[in-house]
Design a protein that fits this description.
heterodimer; A: alpha/beta; six-stranded mixed beta sheet; three-stranded antiparallel beta sheet; B: mainly alpha; MetI-like fold; 10 helices; elongated
């Protein structure tokens, strides 16, 4: 298992050149925040606010125009290979390889790390079992339901016991019952693995249910609010939801606990 | 609850069946041929131009399997070389836009050259008969592998490529765990196209200078005005092609069994 990692983001900006118009488009505008090791952060923002660009930069498949992301002193883009086996991702779509069985999909990250075959199998089977897919180890993705495929994708991420866990709208396309169930499993497993998790979502309920903190992104991505969920008692969650909504819509709203 | 499909025994695919209509039409063609062979002289065609089925059958008994094997070995060798070169260049063009820009026009030009021109070039440029045949087959089949593989690699979804990159694979792992399996449907299609193309082209190439193989035997039959022998060798070649296509079909069913 990887050591828990902290994240430091300072002055992070990303500007794209639009191919059709040739104009520069700002996707991320000076993001600054830190995440402690083992913390679970939910990032909320409206559609097109640059959450996914931020996600790509976090994974290391895109580079920032300015500023930096530092994960335990290293940058995901510049020190790309040093994060092998330390970062795992769960995407909106399961992104399982259609030619691999459920088991082989979960084994994939371990194969890439050249973990011995017996250990690959044992660890993958364990995670498939934990996610309730033990009867479907030899099934191909097209033979599984959407929820099952997403479970396999979660197993593929957790099999690494990663230091950093990233989820981009991972439960957004599932029905409410499955999404709630998987969300709970995700948080439970992330806590158990001690992973530092960043979960991007556009659903406020999900953000409140999952995050230790909620970061509210404006459009383009800039930090509008950084909320510690634990500061808000359960009976205040409706007000919290309302205040995040107001922040997203640019309305003034007092971002503090009423009883505080 | 879904059945654990992946654990069920997958029924082996049934061998392709010859339809009743196909048998009837082939029998009708054979009968028409037999009738024509009996009335050839009365319609002003020399008897030897339309040999009877009995004569063709007799010629079939004189087929030398060494020539059939030599031709098929040449096809197999050429397909192997074409495959390796085609895939290798496709990977190069995929990674290097410069190489793609410089060499793709040349490849397109080569693909437009008629086979007969390649045969003449081969005779003029090379002394070794085997090399001439290999050259003609490779310049004919190689570009098909290249173009299909390149299209397929470029068509591999960005989602899957990003997912794979997030696990930080090596270049080899990225190719062998993602690009190659994702391109298998295209590769199988190119193989089927190239198999039938190579079998037709090899015969023409063997006509020029080869001392073994079906093309050489056809040249001898032509010199002896033995139309029955020409038919016998052609039938043997067509039968070999059908057999290889059936074999390839089985391989395709096996390697693409993950498709819904």
């Amino acid at each position: 298992m990887s050591e828990p990692a902290s994240i430091e983001i300072s002055g992070l900006s990303k500007t794209y050149r639009q191919t059709t118009t040739g104009q520069n488009v700002i996707a991320i505008e000076r993001l600054d925040f830190t995440v402690a090791a083992g913390e679970i952060i939910a990032i909320v923002g409206q559609t097109g606010c640059g959450k996914s660009t931020f996600f790509d930069i976090m994974i290391g498949i895109d580079r920032p125009t300015e500023g930096s992301i530092s994960i335990s002193g290293k940058t995901p883009y510049g020190d790309f290979k040093s994060f092998r086996g330390r970062i795992a991702t769960v995407f909106q779509q399961d992104r399982l390889l259609p030619w691999r069985t459920c088991l082989d999909n979960v084994k994939l990250p371990l194969e890439l790390l050249r973990v011995p075959e017996r250990e690959q199998r044992a660890r993958s089977l364990e995670w498939l079992h934990r996610l309730g897919l033990e009867k479907f180890v030899n099934a191909y993705p097209h033979e599984l339901s959407g929820g099952m495929r997403q479970r396999a994708a979660i197993a593929r991420a957790f099999v690494l016991k990663p230091a950093i866990l990233l989820a981009d709208e991972a439960f957004g396309h599932l029905d409410e019952v499955t999404a709630t169930e998987l969300r709970e499993t995700f948080v439970e497993l992330a806590r158990e693995c001690g992973s530092t998790a960043l979960l991007i979502t556009h659903q406020l309920e999900e953000a409140i249910a999952v995050g230790d903190r909620i970061l509210v992104f404006g459009r383009p991505a800039k930090l509008l609010a950084d909320i510690r969920v634990l500061d808000w008692p359960m009976h205040e969650h409706a007000r919290l939801r309302e205040s995040i909504q107001a922040t997203l819509q640019g309305r003034a709203f007092e971002m503090r606990v009423a009883s505080a | 609850m879904l059945e654990p499909i992946g654990l069920q025994h997958r029924a082996a695919p049934l061998p392709p069946r010859v339809s009743r209509e196909a048998v009837i039409s082939l029998l009708a063609l054979a009968c028409l041929w037999e009738i024509l062979s009996h009335f050839a002289t009365s319609i002003g065609v020399p008897q030897l131009a339309i040999p009877s089925l009995a004569k063709i059958a007799e010629s079939l008994t004189h087929i030398t399997f060494i020539d059939l094997a030599v031709t098929l070995l040449r096809v197999l060798a050429a397909l192997t070389v074409s495959f390796v070169l085609g895939i290798g260049l496709a990977v190069l063009f995929y990674h290097s836009k410069t190489a793609d820009r410089y060499f793709t026009p040349v490849i397109r030009l080569l693909m437009a050259v008629p086979v007969i021109s390649w045969i003449l070039f081969a005779v003029l440029w090379f002394r070794s008969v085997e090399f001439r045949i290999l050259f003609v087959l490779v310049v004919t089949c190689g570009p098909i592998f290249l173009v299909d593989m390149l299209d397929s690699m470029r068509g591999t979804s960005k989602e899957l490529r990003d997912m794979m990159q997030s696990f930080r694979p090596s270049g080899w792992q990225f190719f062998f765990k993602l690009m190659l399996p994702a391109s298998l449907p295209s590769i199988m299609t190119s193989l089927k196209i190239n198999l039938s193309l190579a079998i037709r082209v090899v015969t023409i190439a063997e006509l020029v200078g080869a001392v073994t193989g079906i093309g050489h035997q056809l040249a001898i039959a032509e010199e002896l005005f033995s139309v029955a022998d020409v038919f016998a060798w052609t039938l043997a070649l067509v039968a070999a092609l059908f057999l290889l296509e059936a074999l390839l079909g089985r391989v395709e069913t096996r390697v693409l069994r993950w498709r819904p």
